[in-house]
Design goal:
This protein has 6 helices and no strands. With about 120 residues, it is mostly helical.
C-alpha cells in the first residue's frame, strides 16, 4: 500500500479506498457552511476548537447520540455568547458526517488548522 492509500489509512478508519473519495469530497463541503472564513471565537482559542472536536469524535466513537452531545453543550458555561454558536457549528460538522471517519487526534488537527487558517499570524505549513 502506498501513496494516498497509505496516508489515508493512518488518518481514517475503515477501508482506505472507501474513505478516500468521502474524505476529499465531503470534508470541504461539510466545513464550508459552518466555517466560511474566520468565525468568532469569543474567549476561546483555536486549540479549544480542536480539543472540542477531539472530544466530540471520542463521543461519536463511543456511540454517544448527537442529542446527548447537544444537551452537554447546552449545560456548558460560556464567557461570550458567540462561543456557544461556534461550538454548536463544530458539533454539527462532526456529527453530520465529517467526524464519522476521523480519529480524535485527526479531528483536533483538522479543526484547529481550519480555525487558524486566514487569521493574523497564520503561515501555511
Amino acid at each position: 500500500m502506498g501513496g494516498p492509500q497509505k496516508w489515508l489509512s493512518t488518518y481514517s478508519k475503515g477501508d482506505p479506498l472507501k474513505r478516500l473519495p468521502l474524505l476529499y469530497l465531503a470534508a470541504p463541503l461539510a466545513l464550508a457552511p459552518a466555517f466560511a472564513g474566520n468565525y468568532p471565537l469569543g474567549t476561546m482559542t483555536c486549540d479549544d476548537i480542536g480539543q472540542y472536536a477531539k472530544e466530540l469524535v471520542t463521543g461519536i466513537d463511543a456511540k454517544k447520540p448527537k442529542e446527548v452531545a447537544l444537551q452537554e453543550l447546552a449545560a456548558r458555561k460560556f464567557n461570550d455568547p458567540v462561543e456557544e454558536k461556534t461550538l454548536t457549528d463544530v458539533l454539527n460538522v462532526m456529527y453530520d458526517g465529517f467526524g464519522q471517519g476521523l480519529y480524535p487526534d485527526t479531528a483536533y488537527g483538522a479543526m484547529k488548522y481550519d480555525c487558524e487558517k486566514g487569521r493574523p499570524g497564520f503561515t501555511e505549513q
